[in-house]
Amino acid sequence: MNINDTDDRFFHLAGNEAIESRAIAQRLHVNKTQLADVLGIGVDSLRRSHRERAARVQTRMRDMIEIINRAQPWAGSVNQAFAWYRSQPLPSFGDQTAEELVKEGRADAVKAYLSRINEGGYA
Predict the structure, then answer these.
(1) Is the pLDDT reported for residue 117 higher than 50?
(2) End-to-end CA distance of the chain
(3) Of these four, 2, 74, 107, 117, which has the most CB atoms within 10 Å of its CB?
């Protein structure tokens, strides 16, 4: 995982490299408790490295990062993309937010939605 404030992306994900919650929380200006809430996991999952590396936790973090990376170019910044992720109701999904959908395990649907938008289509 590469954190680069000058990069256009929130994070650059390299293969199956483990994602560190500390780095994500720092970049989003939240603490680990807040990050755990955003991810829909228990805070203990982020406090111990062996739990943080669990497939479920890594998948949830990776999904959030990929979605924020896709939203960032049109949102304007990482912080605005994160705000969108957390609070923008998506009419195509019954006004649920991306955060709510990811918590339900529907990250692929959000990614497909963003792909349609990025290709100039309608949501």
Answers:
(1) yes
(2) 30
(3) 107
